[in-house]
Design a protein that fits this description.
The chain is α/β, with parallel strands linked by helices. It is 43% helix and 19% strand. The protein folds into 2 domains: 120 residues, Aldehyde Oxidoreductase, domain 3 (Alpha-Beta Complex), CATH 3.90.1170.20; 149 residues, TIM Barrel (Alpha-Beta Barrel).
């Protein structure tokens, strides 16, 4: 589940630049240069921890000598109360200036991991896997999709470049499912899968007939989902999408679909309550 630092360092640098601007005026005028401090990172709401390495980097970019001690790992589950998940020490000015950026990343990523874990638990006992979508915060996709994996989910395509996904507007613009799939097969790399969105049984049959690798069953009721799964019969991967939430996901998984794509994992996840408490 590890994420290479080179993927998120530019994101953290950009966040620090946004927050600090010409300088942290409060810290500069209040804290003498050379002051050192230590602090504890506390998770204060139940959930799944994610983003510790990202938070650590925010401090280290402002103080290369900062010492970070992780007291938990990404994927650790914490209950209600105050749970120490890391300690950091170093230049007090650097710690204060990086605090908000570090916490923002950890809170956001832990929130995504927590929501994902709840959905994964809800479909336990079925073959269905919980996957994310491209409904991510602009600029933070690599972090949010990593957090989905930490929560036990699986990533859908990372962007527009790593899967052919023919949706309703592509079908209209191309002149139909068969025309769109035929064009995709002729031009896309042979290693790339082709996914087709279908919202009716005739569309399911057409997508299957023209050789779609994955059929996205869009906004279908339970009866249509079950019928579609039966028609496809394992000849393509089935993906249910549209309107899925915590009250419906178990019933949808029970229809026999292979994966459930849920935008709410990233676009609606509430932040975990995480704080930084300085020692006296």
């Amino acid at each position: 589940m590890d994420i290479p630092e080179f993927l998120f360092e530019p994101i953290v640098r950009a966040a620090l630049t946004e927050d600090i601007g010409a300088g942290d005026i409060t810290t500069t005028v209040c804290i003498p240069a050379g002051t050192t401090a230590s602090a504890t990172v506390l998770a204060k709401s139940p959930g799944v921890v994610a983003g510790l390495a990202v938070g650590a980097l925010a401090f280290r970019l402002l103080d290369p000598n900062a010492r970070w001690e992780a007291l938990a790992e990404d994927g650790a589950k914490v209950g209600a109360g105050r749970h120490a998940i890391a300690r950091v020490s170093g230049d007090a000015r650097a710690l204060l200036t990086a605090e908000r950026v570090a916490l923002n990343f950890m809170q956001r990523m832990s929130g995504v991991a927590t929501v994902t874990a709840r959905y994964v638990d809800l479909v336990a006992g079925t073959k269905a896997r919980i996957i994310d979508t491209r409904k991510t915060t602009p600029g933070l996709r690599v972090l949010e999709k990593y957090a989905v994996r930490v929560g036990g989910g699986v990533n859908h395509r990372l962007g527009l470049y790593d899967c052919v996904l023919i949706k309703d507007n592509h079908i209209k613009a191309a002149g139909g499912i068969t025309a769109a799939v035929t064009a995709a097969r002729a031009q896309a790399p042979h290693t790339m899968k082709v996914e087709v969105e279908a919202s009716t049984i005739p569309q399911v049959r057409e997508a299957l007939a023209c050789g779609a690798d994955i059929i996205l069953l869009d906004n279908m009721g339970l009866n249509l989902l079950r019928e579609s799964v039966e028609i496809i019969g394992g000849r393509a991967i089935t993906e249910a999408s549209g309107g899925l939430n915590e009250s419906t996901v178990a019933a949808v998984a029970a229809t026999g679909v292979d994966v459930l794509s849920i935008g709410a994992l990233t676009h609606s996840a509430p932040a975990m309550d995480i704080s930084l408490d300085f020692a006296e």
